[in-house]
Amino acid sequence: MSGQTDMILVDKKGMRIDGRKTDEHRPVHIEAGVLSNADGSAYLEIGKNKVLAAVYGPRECHPRHLQDPTKAIIQCKYNMEAFSVSDRKRPGPDRRSIEISKIIAEALERVVLTELYPRASIDVYIEILQANAGTRCAGLTAASVALADAGIPMRDIIPAVAAGKADGHVLLDLNKEEDNYGQADVPLAIVPSTDEIVLLQMDGNMTRKEFDKALDMAFGACHEIYEIQKTALKERYAVSKEDDGDE
């Protein structure tokens, strides 16, 4: 985040460059069960972000030295495709993707009942097909739906969204321009049934008042995205029941 730009990100009426209000998240679309060869899967669009998540397991953990005799481990791989950004990205893992993989796995471990599957591995793959800021939140949101689609017991599913600051305004769900030229970015993920925070990071600088406002915005948006997650799962299994009835 440079924090310096001649671009007007928020006009005098409080409207952003993509037509949203300061407290409005981008349109969210989620589909569950999109991959037939995965135990669970989900496709998510939020704004221009396009994300595919797949879950395999629980299955025997390999390599075996990673096995935990008391619970399953969650192995997550977050990957941005080379074509996901305008400047072609070098293929393969980098420091950022390794870090995001780790924090997503740690967030999911807070809701998955891993103690039911000792010595097992639950493998989560997140592919960013198109990126436009907020991909770690989009990836976690999609992965959570994919886990539920796989039938893996969970305390709840996790929605995630970022808030931040750009052009001197506190904004919800920053897009690429706001993220690139803004002053702060605060990704948040919660367990909606308890409002427990399972992911919270901050890049940049905000006052305590601005941070509190950003957090309130993000909490509200997480609950809205949670309803979209549940709807996607309901629609997925409503279709499955209808198919069974036809047979």
Question: Could you characterize what this model shows?
Answer:
The structure is a single chain. With 247 residues, the protein is an alpha+beta fold. It has helices spanning 95-109, 135-149, 176-181, 208-246, and strands spanning 28-32, 40-46, 49-60, 73-80, 120-130, 160-166, 169-172, 184-191, 196-200, 203-204. Strands 1-2-3-5-4 form a five-stranded mixed sheet. Helix 2 runs parallel beside helix 4. It is globular, with a radius of gyration of 18 Å. The mean pLDDT is 93.
Summary, kept brief:
The chain is an alpha+beta fold and 247 residues long. It is built from 4 helices and 10 strands.
**Fraction of residues in β-strands:** 25-35%
Helix content: 25-40%
Q: Which stretches are low in confidence, meaning pLDDT under 50 for 5 or more residues running?
A: none
**How confident is the prediction overall: mean pLDDT?**
93
Q: Could you give the order of the helices and strands?
A: EEEEHEHEEHEEEH
Give the number of DSSP strands. 10
Largest sheet: 5 strands, mixed
